[in-house]
Each structure stands twice: as C-alpha cells, then as structure tokens.
Amino acid sequence: MTITLETVQNIAPDQASLNAAKKLLKPAKWPVKQQIDSKELAWGHCQGSGANPYYTVIDTSNHGYKCTCPSRKFPCKHVLALMWQYADDDSSFAVAEVPQWVTDWLGRRRNKSTSVGTTTEDASNTDKDTTTKKITASIAKTGMDNQVSTAAKIDPEAEAKKQAAAAKRAAKLKAATDKAISAGLKEYEQWLADQLRTGLINFLDHATERCRNISARLVDAKATNLAARLDELPAKLMQIPKENQLRMATNELGKIVCLVKAWQANCDDKDVRRAISSAESRDSVLENADTISQQGIWQVVAEQVENRRDGLISHATWLRYLGGVGDLDNLASLGDTLSAEALQSLSQERSQLTQAANAQSQPMPVVPFALLQDYYPASTGRRSTSASLGGYLIADIRYYPSRYPLRAVIASQQHVDEQLASVISALTGTGMNVNNGQNPFKFYPCQQDSHLPQSVFEFYRGYQQALAVMPWLEAMPCLLPCGHIRPMLSPSLNQSTSKGQKNQQNRLWWQADDGLQNNVIKPHENSKQAQQQSLQSAQWQLPLRPNQSQNQRSLDYVLACPLTHSFILWDGVYATFGSGYHQHWGQLSW
Fold this sequence. Notes:
Helix content is 41%, strand content 19%. It has 19 helices and 17 strands.
C-alpha cells in the first residue's frame, strides 16, 4: 500500500487541515526529508517559528503517523503535508539510516491494521465514482491539483475585485485596531500619571494589583505585548533587593513611556507595533524582500525558559554568529588536522549554503546575535531545541524588520552531527589552534576578542548606543571578555546593614580578570559615576541578576574556572548570565 493524494484526502480530519497543510509544502519549511530503502518509512523536520522543528514520521505501508506538535487534530497539518509531498514526489526524500527517535516510535507503536488502512480500502471498493468526485472537489479547494483546467481558472477581473475587497477589509480592520490601541495607551498615560501623583514608593507596595489592572485594560485595547510586559513587571521587581526596586521600576516605566510616544509619532513603525501589539507571522518574515538574511554557522549561547502569568511558556534561544558561508574556503589547507570525511561533509555544507546565499540580492549585514522566541502552552511540556547550549547550527537566519535586529526565525538549516560539531569547535574554539595557528574562519570584527568591550566605559557606551536606537529595549545582548563568576559582597552593604542582611545580599558577580575592586557597576549608581571609574582601569565588575535559576553542581564548575568569554543580557541594572566559554570544558552555564 502506498500513499496517494486520495490517501491524504481520506485521512484528513477536515478541509481546514488540508488548507493548512498546503501552506507547509514549501521546501524551505522541510530542511530534512528522508526515507528508508524499502520506502515503507519516511520522516522529516518541519521548521516552525521557534528554534525547534517538529519531528514527523509516516508509515507508508499502513499509513501510520506521529508528530511532536501539540495539535489536537489527528493527523495534524504536518503529517498531511509530509504525506502530500511524498505522494507528489517520493524521490525528493533522501535515503538515510533510521534515526533514534523514529526507532523509539516504532518500538512503542501498535499495528493498527484495521484502522486507516481498512477504511481506505473499503472506501475504494465501494462507489468509486462518488469517491473520485469528493476527492476532486477537496483537491480543488486546496489547490492540490497542479493541472487545473482552463474552465476552472478564476476570472482575472473577479480575482482583482476580490483582492481589492480583501485589502479594503484589512485596512478597515487595521484602522479599528490602531484606534483601540491609541485609546488604550492614553489610558496607560493617565494610569502612569496617577502612580507618579501618589508616589512610586506606594506603587512598589501595590505593584501586582495595579499592573494587573492596567494590563487587563491594555489587553482589551489589543495592546497584548505591552500588556504582557507590564504584567511581568511585579515579578521582576520581587526578584531583586528592595533598595534597587525603585530604580528598576523607574527604568522600565520610562522605557514604556518612550514606546508610547513612538506609537503616537508613527503607529506603522514595525518595531513599535511588535512591542505593543503583536509580532509578524513567520511566513511574512520569510516572504519579505527586505528581510535581513544571514547564512552561516551559529552557536547556541543561552536558553531562557520562563512561565508567564498568561499561562504560556516563553522559550528564548540566543544564537551567536561564528562565520559566513565563505569562511570554509581554506578547509583543504588543514591537511591531516581533519579527516577526509569531515572535510567532505563541511565542503558539502558550504556548497549548499553558498547557493542559498547567492540567491539573496542584498549583501550580508553585520548582525552578531539572533533571538529565536517561541511561546507555547504549559500543558504541552518543555520543548527540546534543535541544538542544546553550546551546540552548533548551520542555518539561514531571517530577522524581523527592525532598526536593532535581534528576533529572528530559521528559514532553513543543515544537520550538524557529532563529528561535524567537533570540527566546527576545533575551527572556532578560542583555546585551540589549527592550521599552524591560522584560523580559516573570517570572524566579523564585532566577534573578535580585540573588539570585545575592554572597560566599563566602553560597555556602557555600547548600551547607551543601543538605547539611542531603541529606547524601549528590554535587554542588550553582549559578549564579555575573559573573566570569572565570583560570589562577593557589595561594598555598599558594609555599613548600615545587619549581619543577616549582608548574608542575604551575598550574590554572584562577573569580574574581569585582574579587575580592581573599586571599579564596580553598582545597581544604585548612575552611568556617569561608573564611566569616571572606568577611566582609571580597563577592568570592571558586573552584578548578576539575583534569584537567577541555579543548579549548584553546574554553578560550582563555573565558579572554579576562568571564562574566555561570557554571554550576558544587560538591562541597565543587572546582567543575566547566559553562558561562558572555557577553553577545555566548552560552554558552561547553570
């Protein structure tokens, strides 16, 4: 028994699922499509909006299936899309060994020989003419049939009128949405004026209740992202010491004021709309001709999984750019350093990515980091990413349109096996020399150690430049030079605090190697004082965010070794530690 378009139509739960599956037929959405020699089993990876693809497998013999997506429809659109592509052209599926996750599924699966297969067979043995008509009608609705008759073609004038009517409805809906958001932001300004009138100290005592009330109003006004940001503010304030809460609240509320003013100046600004209302869809980012595309080798430098108050899980994956597709030209000169298989594998990866890069009309910009943001219900459980912390991706990253590009999606990616990962690690690791000390990768200037911030003044200058570009930026990603993670007591607590309070305030700091004790960015100090201190030394210290989730065993490893470089997120008060690189142990975090 094989898979045909009739099979896809028969097992589809409804017409909407077929329509959704049609949108997933683009090759860019399926970086992996493979099958076994006997063609009885096929599987693929469907890239979603997050960092992790959905793993889909189909049994072509009796039409069994499995997908890792949380859809409540069976089969889901990913299974239908994979079957659809297999029915159209099974030669597009490369022959490969069965991966472990497929083997695990086969081991757990019970043979349902009397379910879908029997239904399909029975249907084909009944009234074939009636079945054929139903299939043809369903296929015509979704566009599955590429050979559309001339009589079935849509009249150009009617299509133009239809598109004009759709554009008019979209413009009317956008105008109504903008009006509602503007009204909600005016209500927020009045709310903020009330907080200032009664005093921010009083606000800190009732932050949860007050932020929840204004967040609910903003949700009604369709300013959902801004509402979520305000709803999370009390939780962030509760995680830091009381003496620093006022400063953080002032910073955050001030950033939101800048965001509101930006909306009032230009509500069509993409950065503003994304921060206040909602982000663009993944398809719109991929189809946008002005989208920044950056192909090459990326490393996962941080993962943040947080429970939001709206019941969703926020899963943020931070990637660091290591090199472009042209950085593999000198592989042949490595000689005996790499195996022939590794050289061939890297050469193949370079060839595929070069073709993708040549298809881009615009030159590759300098964007050192990428944020893959995903949201999903807590009931689905934590999703696994396509690469763990410290792992590598060879991918085409597409950025959301922005004046400060950070958030992005994966357009396509190549599989990085263990051998290839070890080769990339050897070529890019700061503690290893290959090719007689000549690293074949051409790093961007902002990624070279000589261009990392070497003083607190340079660090603060970069942060101020980021705020000048986007004043409502929540946190700035940064790569710090060689340093240590150390527990130390803030000097400001040496006086007027009890012994118990001192112990509670004994937190973690990042300290540059050979740093001076008096060259510290204290959360209660302003940037001018810190900049004046930096003129005396090129070293400095940064306070790490309190109550950051810690695994004590992993933390002991991090505290015990020097880090060649560290990835952090700086919000103007504290640094959230993502990971640090040790020349022998690799990427470390807790």
